[in-house]
Amino acid sequence: MAKVLFINPGPSGHLNPAVAVSKTLVERGEDVVFYANAHYKEKLSGTGVELRIIPSEPIVEAFTTYGMNHLFNVINGLLKTTDIILPQILEDVQHEHYDYLIHDSMFGCGHLVSQKLNIPTISTVTSFNQTTQMFDDFTKNLATTLTQDEVDNANAAFDELKQHVEYTYNVDVPSRFEVMNNPGDLNLSYVMEKFQIDYASFDSERNYFAGPSVIQPQPSGFMDEIDRSRPIIYISLGTIFNQNIAFFNKCFKALKDLNVTVVVSIGNENRLEDFEDIPDNFIIKAYVPQTELLQYTSLFLTHAGMNSTNESMMMGVPMLAFPQSADQPVVAQQIEDLNLGQQLNAETMTPEILKQTVLDMLGNLEYYQHNIDQIRDTETNQRPGYELAVDRILAFRDQNCK
């Protein structure tokens, strides 16, 4: 048995794949200390990990300091969270021994923690993996889309943050790539090989594509109230972008006259009185057991978060993507390029365009499902992604932890 330090503050799209992995690690004998946001205490209960809480509000406040309007500001926000996360973890573990570290590739200052602890490190990747060259090409292109003032301000903020973090914690922040991607000795991706952009560019010794880490859904009673006699359409913008009232109202107008059952997840912040008239064929819920519902879903209207995209492909459900931010435009483009679905702009589409697109997709479900099957069929092992991930983690442990 080895002792594992696992850092993953969330959000849910980053945390969800780690739940099954951490549970399986414990079942196979590992002693896991897991740092997470208090919101995910219930998700991690029953996994057998020792849960330690990282405060979410200060992290969110730091992360959003520079705004979310472009990636350079997002990266600056990530670097600013160092002052919240790193001191707590270093103080907590100063008298503890760990054999290896697992951290989320985007959240949790993994690259910095690994420098301080000097132990073998695994970075878990919930979106597309990136080589340094891929990242550099993307950021160079991004810079051409911004004003010179935006670039200068972002660069100045990054340089100031980099100097502060390096001086305060005696660590190295080589570039934006390390802040955004937190590469480890092993980079473990929850993306299917054939869905990964430019898969052949990745060194198989340091990069492993386990595929979706999702526990098989169990019946909860949710489907008992859903009319399954007609096609089911599921609509969700995830947990961060679901306050787009105008988008949901367009969906009401577009789909109200179709012979379908529409299930909509609106989150805990929205109220029913915030919406226009809700049609009779719509079921509105604050929370939806997504993987359970997707087993019965014909078409998924999604924000194209990687977690939702993985789950949809696992269940063979075509997607109509409405990317909102972060990596979602890239994921949505891959969905379209591989003919797993289509994408629309949530802001500019009309109810009429949405209605016609949905009708066209419902009439061609077998085409999209066949293409999804082609992606899934590239997985040579039919075991779940979290089991494959743990196999690789333990092999890494045996090779690197003496």
From TrEMBL:
GO molecular function, one term: transferase activity
Domain Erythromycin biosynthesis protein CIII-like C-terminal: 253-381
CDD domains per record: GT1_Gtf-like
A Pfam family hit: EryCIII-like_C
Keywords linked to the UniProt accession: Glycosyltransferase, Transferase
Residue ranges of every copy of the Glycosyltransferase family 28 N-terminal domain listed in the record: 9-87
Record keyword Heme present: no
Similarity comment: Belongs to the UDP-glycosyltransferase family.
Protein name per Swiss-Prot or TrEMBL: Glycosyl transferase
